[in-house]
C-alpha cells in the first residue's frame, strides 16, 4: 500500500552517490557513479533519482516491483540477498544488505541530511493515548511560539501541508522524507506517534528522539507481537540510546512502572493516579487537585523539587489528564522552563486542542461523542469518563475489528454492558472476516456480562454501522449521551476486501440533524419470559423510535438485567 506520507517530500535534496550510501551501510560498494536524491520503499511512489528499497514483505518481496520503480526513474536499489537474486540483469546498481528494513531509515536519513537532528523531536508510544498526547504536545509547542510538525494516526502535518495518514508511523523512507520536508517548511519541532509495529519494523531507525514518552500498556496487537511480553519489549526499545535521549514515563500502570525501571536512557516519571496504580508520591512529577473545568478538567503538576504549574485540558476523562500532563512534562523535560510553559498555557487557555475522533463532542443534547476506543480498556475508560456527566442514559455503539486480535471481542462486549445502559453492537472494520461472526463474539461477552450487571441494560445488534448510529441517536433523549466508539476519525470501512466510505462523525451529524426528542416511553408491561427480551409495543425494539421508519431487524435482542 502506498503511504500518502510519501507525497510529502522535501523540495530540493543534495544528490548522494549510491556508492557512498553503500559504504555507510557497510555493504559491498557497487562500482557506480549513480546518484540518489530520494528514497522510497513502494514502487508506486518512486520518481526520478530515487533509491528504491526493496523490502522482503509478509506477502511479496518488494524486489518484484523494482523494474517498475526503475522505469519511474529510480537510480539504485537497496535490498537483501533474496531481493538481489530477483534482480539479475537490472540496469541500476543494487546495494545488498542483510536487513534492508533496518538500513532504510539510516540510508534515507543520510540522503535527506539527517532531518531529525534539525528538529526538537518528541516520540510517543503506548497502547492508548499516543494520538491525543501528540495533539496536546503540538498545541503546547505552538502556544510556545514554535512551529511544530505532526505525524500520527490521523494526519501528517508539515507547515501548511496536511495529509491524512495511512499508517500511524510511516515507513522509514517516507518518514525521513516527511521530516526533511518539515525542515524545508520551517518546522522546528516534531510531535509524533511511534507504534510498536514501527519499532518492530525499523520504521524509526535513524531517529534519536530528544524526548520519548510512554503512556500505558494494555493487551492489544497480540496478533502481531504474539504475547504481551514481546509487545512490552518492543515498546521498551524506544527507551534505549539508539532511539531516544531521555524518557518521560507515565507510571499509572504496572507496565509504566516496569518501563521506567527498564529504560536505558535518563527517565523522568509521571504519576497521575488515573490508571490502575494509585498516585505514586515517589514519582518525579505528580498530578494533584484534579477538578472539572469546562468540558474537561483542571489539574496541577508538581515536581519533587517544588516546581509547580496549574493548567487544564478540554478533553473529558481522567486519562486525558494523564495525556495532557504527559505532554506538559515532555516539553518541560526538553529544556523549556516552567515559567515559559506556564505563560504559554495561560495565554492559550490551557490544553484546548480538539483531537479528531478522540472524545470529539458533536452535540450536547443529546450529547454525541465519537471516540477511537477500540479495545477493552479504552472502551471502559471512555464510558466511565462520560458517565459522571451523563444526566440520562449512556448508550454505546461499537463493534470489534475483523482479522485482528479476536481474543478481545467478548471482553469488549462485557465492558460495554458494564459501562453503558444501551449497548448497540455493530460492525467495526470487518476487513476480510465474516461480519456476523465478529459481532457474535462481541455479543457472547455482552450476554455473559448481562447476567451479573445488576441493572437494566438494553442490548441490540444492528449489523450496518450507519444504521446503528442513526438508531442510537434517534432513540436518545436530550439528557442522554451516545458514545460512538472504535473508528474515531476513520473514513473507510473495509468489508470483504472492498473499501466503503463511512465516517462516524458524518453519520452522527446526519442523525442529529434528523433528531427530535423521542416520545416518553410507555410503562413496561408485566413481563413474561418473552417480554423480557422484547420491548413492549415496538416490534423492532425500543432503540428504534417513531419517525425513523426502519424495518424490523431480526438480529434485535433486548434484555432487562436484574
Ligand atoms: C503487519 C504490517 O505492519 N505490515 C506492513 C508490511 O506489510 P507486508 O510485510 O505484508 O508487505 P508486503 O505487502 O508483502 O510488501 C512488501 C514490500 O513490497 C512493497 N510493495 C508492495 C506492493 C506493491 O505493489 N508495490 C510495492 O512496492 C511494499 O511497500 C513493501 O515494502 O510492510 C508494508 C510496507 O512495507 C506495510 O505497509 C504493512 O503495513 C500494513 C499496511 C498495516 O496495516 N500495518 C498496520 C498493522 C500497522 O503498522 N499499524 C501500526 C499502528 C498500530 C496501532 O497502534 O494501532 C502503524 O504504525 O500504522
Ligand atoms: N491515556 C490513556 N489511557 C487509556 N485510554 C486512553 C488514553 N488516552 C486515550 N485513551 C482512549 O484510547 C483511545 C485511543 O486514543 P488515542 O488515539 O489517543 O491513542 P493511540 O495510542 O493513538 O491509539 P491507536 O494506537 O489505537 O491509534 C481514545 O479514543 C480513548 O478512548
From TrEMBL:
<keyword id="KW-0436">Ligase</keyword>
<comment type="function">
    <text>Catalyzes the addition of an amino acid to the nucleotide precursor UDP-N-acetylmuramoyl-L-alanyl-D-glutamate (UMAG) in the biosynthesis of bacterial cell-wall peptidoglycan.</text>
</comment>
<keyword id="KW-0067">ATP-binding</keyword>
<feature type="binding site">
    <location>
        <position position="195"/>
    </location>
    <ligand>
        <name>UDP-N-acetyl-alpha-D-muramoyl-L-alanyl-D-glutamate</name>
    </ligand>
</feature>
<feature type="domain" description="Mur ligase N-terminal catalytic">
    <location>
        <begin position="36"/>
        <end position="110"/>
    </location>
</feature>
<dbReference type="InterPro" id="IPR005761">
    <property type="entry name" value="UDP-N-AcMur-Glu-dNH2Pim_ligase"/>
</dbReference>
<keyword id="KW-0132">Cell division</keyword>
<dbReference type="InterPro" id="IPR013221">
    <property type="entry name" value="Mur_ligase_cen"/>
</dbReference>
<dbReference type="InterPro" id="IPR036565">
    <property type="entry name" value="Mur-like_cat_sf"/>
</dbReference>
<feature type="binding site">
    <location>
        <begin position="126"/>
        <end position="132"/>
    </location>
    <ligand>
        <name>ATP</name>
    </ligand>
</feature>
<dbReference type="InterPro" id="IPR018109">
    <property type="entry name" value="Folylpolyglutamate_synth_CS"/>
</dbReference>
<dbReference type="InterPro" id="IPR036615">
    <property type="entry name" value="Mur_ligase_C_dom_sf"/>
</dbReference>
<keyword id="KW-0573">Peptidoglycan synthesis</keyword>
<dbReference type="InterPro" id="IPR004101">
    <property type="entry name" value="Mur_ligase_C"/>
</dbReference>
<feature type="binding site">
    <location>
        <position position="203"/>
    </location>
    <ligand>
        <name>UDP-N-acetyl-alpha-D-muramoyl-L-alanyl-D-glutamate</name>
    </ligand>
</feature>
<dbReference type="Pfam" id="PF08245">
    <property type="entry name" value="Mur_ligase_M"/>
</dbReference>
<dbReference type="InterPro" id="IPR035911">
    <property type="entry name" value="MurE/MurF_N"/>
</dbReference>
<feature type="modified residue" description="N6-carboxylysine">
    <location>
        <position position="235"/>
    </location>
</feature>
<keyword id="KW-0547">Nucleotide-binding</keyword>
<comment type="similarity">
    <text>Belongs to the MurCDEF family. MurE subfamily.</text>
</comment>
<feature type="region of interest" description="Disordered">
    <location>
        <begin position="512"/>
        <end position="562"/>
    </location>
</feature>
<protein>
    <recommendedName>
        <fullName>UDP-N-acetylmuramyl-tripeptide synthetase</fullName>
        <ecNumber>6.3.2.-</ecNumber>
    </recommendedName>
</protein>
<feature type="binding site">
    <location>
        <begin position="168"/>
        <end position="169"/>
    </location>
    <ligand>
        <name>UDP-N-acetyl-alpha-D-muramoyl-L-alanyl-D-glutamate</name>
    </ligand>
</feature>
<keyword id="KW-0131">Cell cycle</keyword>
<feature type="domain" description="Mur ligase central">
    <location>
        <begin position="125"/>
        <end position="330"/>
    </location>
</feature>
<keyword id="KW-0133">Cell shape</keyword>
<feature type="compositionally biased region" description="Basic and acidic residues">
    <location>
        <begin position="537"/>
        <end position="562"/>
    </location>
</feature>
<dbReference type="InterPro" id="IPR000713">
    <property type="entry name" value="Mur_ligase_N"/>
</dbReference>
<keyword id="KW-0460">Magnesium</keyword>
<keyword id="KW-0963">Cytoplasm</keyword>
<feature type="binding site">
    <location>
        <position position="201"/>
    </location>
    <ligand>
        <name>UDP-N-acetyl-alpha-D-muramoyl-L-alanyl-D-glutamate</name>
    </ligand>
</feature>
<dbReference type="Pfam" id="PF01225">
    <property type="entry name" value="Mur_ligase"/>
</dbReference>
<keyword id="KW-0961">Cell wall biogenesis/degradation</keyword>
<dbReference type="GO" id="GO:0008765">
    <property type="term" value="F:UDP-N-acetylmuramoylalanyl-D-glutamate-2,6-diaminopimelate ligase activity"/>
</dbReference>
<dbReference type="Pfam" id="PF02875">
    <property type="entry name" value="Mur_ligase_C"/>
</dbReference>
<comment type="pathway">
    <text>Cell wall biogenesis; peptidoglycan biosynthesis.</text>
</comment>
<feature type="domain" description="Mur ligase C-terminal">
    <location>
        <begin position="357"/>
        <end position="488"/>
    </location>
</feature>
Amino acid at each position: 500500500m502506498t503511504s500518502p506520507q510519501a507525497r510529502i517530500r522535501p523540495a530540493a535534496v543534495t544528490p548522494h552517490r549510491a556508492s557512498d550510501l553503500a559504504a555507510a551501510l557497510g555493504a559491498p560498494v557497487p562500482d557506480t557513479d549513480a546518484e540518489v536524491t530520494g528514497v522510497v520503499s513502494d514502487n508506486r511512489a518512486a520518481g526520478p533519482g530515487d533509491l528504491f528499497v526493496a523490502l522482503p514483505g509478509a506477502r511479496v518481496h518488494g524486489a518484484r516491483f523494482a523494474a517498475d520503480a526503475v522505469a519511474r526513474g529510480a537510480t539504485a536499489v537497496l535490498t537483501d540477498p533474496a531481493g538481489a537474486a530477483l534482480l539479475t540483469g537490472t540496469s541500476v546498481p543494487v546495494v545488498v544488505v542483510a536487513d534492508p528494513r533496518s538500513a532504510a531509515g539510516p540510508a534515507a536519513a543520510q540522503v535527506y541530511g539527517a532531518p531529525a537532528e534539525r528538529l526538537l523531536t518528541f516520540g510517543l508510544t503506548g497502547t492508548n493515548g499516543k494520538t491525543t498526547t501528540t495533539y496536546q504536545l503540538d498545541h503546547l509547542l505552538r502556544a510556545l511560539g514554535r512551529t511544530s510538525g505532526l505525524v500520527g494516526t490521523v494526519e501528517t502535518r508539515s507547515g501548511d501541508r496536511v495529509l491524512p495518514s495511512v499508517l500511524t508511523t510511516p515507513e522509514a523512507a517516507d518518514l525521513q522524507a516527511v521530516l526533511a520536508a518539515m525542515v524545508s517548511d520551517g518546522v522546528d519541532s516534531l510531535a509524533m506517534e511511534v507504534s510498536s509495529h514501527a519499532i518492530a519494523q525499523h520504521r524509526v531507525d535513524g531517529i534519536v528522539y530528544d524526548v520519548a514518552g510512554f503512556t500505558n500498556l494494555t493487551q492489544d496487537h497480540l496478533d502481531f507481537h504474539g504475547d504481551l511480553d514481546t509487545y512490552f519489549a518492543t515498546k521498551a526499545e524506544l527507551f534505549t540510546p539508539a532511539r531516544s535521549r531521555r524518557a518521560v514515563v507515565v507510571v499509572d500502570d504496572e507496565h509504566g512502572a516496569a518501563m521506567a525501571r527498564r529504560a536505558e536512557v535518563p527517565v523522568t516519571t509521571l504519576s497521575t493516579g488515573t490508571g490502575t496504580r494509585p498516585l505514586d508520591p515517589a514519582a518525579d512529577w505528580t498530578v494533584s487537585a484534579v477538578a472539572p473545568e469546562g468540558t474537561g478538567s483542571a489539574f496541577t503538576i508538581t515536581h519533587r523539587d517544588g516546581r509547580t504549574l496549574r493548567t487544564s485540558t478540554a478533553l473529558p476523562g481522567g486519562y486525558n489528564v494523564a495525556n495532557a500532563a504527559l505532554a506538559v512534562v515532555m516539553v518541560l523535560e526538553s529544556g523549556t522552563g516552567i515559567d515559559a510553559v506556564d505563560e504559554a498555557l495561560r495565554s492559550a487557555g490551557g490544553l484546548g486542542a480538539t483531537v479528531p475522533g478522540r472524545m470529539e463532542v458533536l452535540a450536547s443534547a443529546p450529547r454525541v461523542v465519537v471516540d477511537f476506543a477500540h479495545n477493552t480498556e479504552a472502551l471502559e475508560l471512555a464510558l466511565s469518563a462520560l458517565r459522571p456527566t451523563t444526566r440520562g442514559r449512556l448508550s454505546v455503539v461499537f463493534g470489534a475489528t475483523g482479522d485482528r486480535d479476536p481474543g478481545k471481542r467478548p471482553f469488549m462486549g462485557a465492558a460495554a454492558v458494564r459501562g453503558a445502559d444501551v449497548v448497540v453492537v455493530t460492525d467495526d472494520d470487518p476487513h476480510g472476516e465474516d461480519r456476523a461472526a465478529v459481532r457474535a463474539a462481541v455479543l457472547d461477552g455482552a450476554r455473559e456480562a448481562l447476567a451479573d450487571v445488576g441493572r437494566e441494560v438494553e442490548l441490540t445488534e444492528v449489523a450496518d454501522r450507519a444504521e446503528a448510529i442513526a438508531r442510537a441517536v434517534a432513540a436518545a433523549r436530550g439528557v442522554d449521551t451516545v458514545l460512538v466508539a472504535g473508528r474515531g476519525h476513520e473514513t473507510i470501512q473495509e468489508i470483504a476486501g472492498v473499501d466503503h466510505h463511512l465516517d462516524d462523525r458524518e453519520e452522527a451529524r446526519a442523525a442529529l440533524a434528523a433528531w427530535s426528542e423521542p416520545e416518553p416511553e410507555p410503562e413496561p408491561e408485566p413481563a413474561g419470559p418473552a417480554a423480557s427480551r422484547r420491548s413492549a409495543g415496538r416490534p423492532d425494539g425500543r432503540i428504534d423510535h417513531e419517525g425513523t421508519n426502519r424495518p424490523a431487524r431480526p438480529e434485535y435482542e433486548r434484555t432487562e438485567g436484574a
